Structure formats: structure tokens, C-alpha cells
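Objective 1.3, modelling of assemblies. Example input:
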Amino acid sequence: MSRELGPVRWIGATTLGAAVGVTVSTVLAGTPGRSLSTVAGGALVVLGFGAIIGLVLGASQVLALPRGVLPWHMWTLATLVGAAFGFGAAAAVGELLGNVIDPTISVAVGGAAIQITSGAAVGLGVGGAQSFVLRRSVVGAGGWWILSTVVGAGLGYGAAIGVLELFDVPILKANVILSFGAILGLFIGVAQGLVLWSRGRRLAPAPS
Amino acid sequence: MSGRTRSAGRAVGFALAALIGAGCGDRAVNESPSSTATILVAPTCDPTDQDRYVYRPARLQAVLPCVRVAGTIVASSTEADGDVHLDVRLDDAYVGFLNAGNLQEGGNLVVEPVCRFAPMQAEAIRVCASDPDPLTGALPGVGEHVWLEGRYALDLQHHAWAELHPLYRWGRVEP
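Predicted structure (C-alpha cells):
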């Protein structure tokens, strides 16, 4: 049996999941996470920050899928682990580039390079981990899934920070955290959706 | 001498003059910098450890480790780098802290407490995650007349405007 996957559901679930995940994670990384801030120079907090985003994002995406198409627990776990390491890598890459790139060059150019590269690292973590689960149901989608998530997260990260930092849009500025997550999730959702529609539009149930 | 260096030199001069006049030295201040207000604050201006948690430190040119200013908050916004951005209309006694770059901010001093929340901007994520004791509690609201203490720096990414970055502490100026 095969089932249809609606594009609007996938994009909506990914956007909502990232927005809520980033918001929840930001709250938890605040006062509760501060007690762990001295562990490994904050690395543990960063991993936890990403893991919570991945947990909410993965759970939200599972809800958008037809029942039984993917093993929900594996998908959620993969997204959690992928986002943890993805955000860990993004933080490391971002800090490295931030200290290498001349701060006096254009904020738009220097900032874009840092954020897009860091976002791509998030996408590599999330897409790579999810591809292990997805390839059981969507044959041959693994490589495209990783590529699309890297591109979507890279552009989404850059767009989110760019919009929030360079443009004075009151509703976005008043909800910086939620807006960042929503923009990032929207780009990832569209990029991943393109792969689902082109290669896995008719999904097979997960093998038992 | 470059323009930036001259600008920094002028700023140091203004800052030293303001330090003497504003009570960051060793005497209590009990007169308003601009009218009849009293600054209720300890007479010292001690840096905290927050300057260690400024991400990408090369973007800021530190001028003085700690200064105190007074003024009115005219705008406040959160930023994706975890900082809060305050625009402060300085009282007359402190306008020497401003430079030409501050015209980009409406002639206001920029004041930024750092790591107020977990940042999304990649280069700030780990730095703020390692900060065990950021400035917590409420920040002054728009319209409040306050004193503020922080590191005096020039933001090289933004027209080299003058900032207190990071903000160490603040309090209300009682009328």
C-alpha cells in the first residue's frame, strides 16, 4: 500500500516544529542550562540546545506523515541526535569563522558567510541522521535528502539571521526566537519537501 | 594616525572627563548630570566578567574598561545574537561619549547587555552557553531615566559607533 504525503503538511510541520523547538530550547538553555555552562566550555549546553530542537522538530514531522510510513521513534531519535551534533558543529564553525573573518568587512557579506556555513552544518547533522531512517522507505533518497537539508538549513539560517539583523520588521523583531525558528524550518521544509515530492511522493510503509 | 585611532583618542578624552564628572572615581555623586536628579549608585565602576562572553571580540575596540553614563532609554530590542540593544538618549553631561557613528542610531548611545538568552547567531552560541552568570533581572524600559555602567567600546562593524558593551549594571536615577 502507498500513501500520499501532502506538501503543505510537511512544510507546515517542519516550520512549526523548528519554531516551537527553538523557542523551547532557548528557554531551557537559559536558567536551567546555566548550571552546566562550565562543562566543556559550554559544549554540553550547545548539544542539549540542539537536541531539544531536534526532538520537537522530529516529533512534529512525524505527525505530518501518514501513519506507519516511518518508524516514529527512530525518526524522532535520529532528528534529536542529528540536531544536537548539527548545532554543535554550527557553533564551532560559526565561532571559528567569526574569529577569522575581518569584522570591518561588510556585515552582510561576513555575516552571510558565517551563518550560511553554520546552517549547512546544522543541515548536515539533521539530514545525515534522518537519511538513515528515511532510506528504508524512500529508496535512493538518502543522498538527495542530505543535500537538500544542507542547502535548506544553510539558506534558512542565513535568511533568518539576515532578516532579523538587517531589516527592521517590527513583528519579527518582537519575536526574534520564534521568527528565527520559523524561517529556518520553512526553508528546511521546502527543501526536504522537494525531495519527498520528487522521489518519495508515494511512500511505502516501513518494513516491520 | 588613522581616523579610527583619532576617534578612539577623542573618546578616551571625553570618557576621562565624564568619569571625573560622573562619579566613577572615588566620590559619591549627589547631583544630577543634567538637572536636579541624584544618581544613587556606589561611586566605583568595576567591570564584571561579562566582557569574556562577548562573541567575536575583534569587532569591538575597547576604549575604557568601565564607565558610567546616565540618560533616558528611547528604544529596546532583542537580537538574534542573544544581546539586548538599548538606545540611550544621554544626559548633557555625557554626550562626549558619542561620536559621529552614533548619528546612525539617532544620536543615541548603544548599550548592550550580552547573553540575555540563548543566541541563534552561530558565532555566539557557544560563547553564551559558557557564560554562567550573565546580567539577569529586568532591564530598563523605554522612557526610564537611568544610570548605566559598562565597557566603553567602538563597534567596528557598525560605523564605529560608541557603545557600552557589555553592560555591567544599571539603576534608576531618582528624581
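The helical segments of chain A are 7-28, 31-34, 43-64, 72-100, 107-134, 142-166, 170-173, 176-199.
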